[in-house]
Amino acid sequence: MPQLNPNPWFFIMLTSWLTYSMIIQPKLLSFLSTNPPSSKGQTTQTTTPWTWPWT
What we know:
Layout: H1 7-29
């Protein structure tokens, strides 16, 4: 069964993974975020209970 032979496919997978992790990933991580998270303080919201007409 030729699909069980890992000879060519393992090398292709390893090469593509190394290409991604060494070349493409640092380029993608160097971009600045267009919408950086703001440093707002956490606000607590107060809710009013609902008055049910049948209680």
